[in-house]
């Protein structure tokens, strides 16, 4: 299986959202759009509960690293979260499984990683890109880097501990670094 990629073209970022809604569901599109804005790993994103959100902040401990992630929610994320809350006022999880609701006495569960992986792969195949659940984090990191060229800022946002890891993760290649050296003459 090929490594998933950051979506480097902003029109393609919007097209992924559109296709997820048309081919899969509104919920998959919401996962994509909120995931882009929070830059969380999929396991943490799917585990978000409405109680983790306090006004304009999301506060969770990451499952992989146990690091505290305190994320200020931007307007787009807040709008989407409020839309979900209005549509599903009794949900516990931001991305709660609808299938689970059909089992009357079942405890609520978040949507499964497998369902998201399948939906993203379907759209990725249609667009001929390696799209997966990490593509949201990678895409946000890539676009922040392109905007700021501040790798330390991207590292902090992704909560990485090395520049090399972050550059590789967001898909900045040696070829792109070489191009920067060629184009910037002082």
Automatic annotation (TrEMBL):
Q: Where is the Tyr recombinase domain?
A: 2-182
The UniProt keyword set, sorted, is: DNA integration, DNA recombination
Tell me the SUPFAM superfamilies matching this sequence. DNA breaking-rejoining enzymes
Looking up Pfam families in the UniProt record yields: Phage_integrase
Recorded protein name is Tyrosine-type recombinase/integrase
Organism of this sequence: Pseudoalteromonas distincta
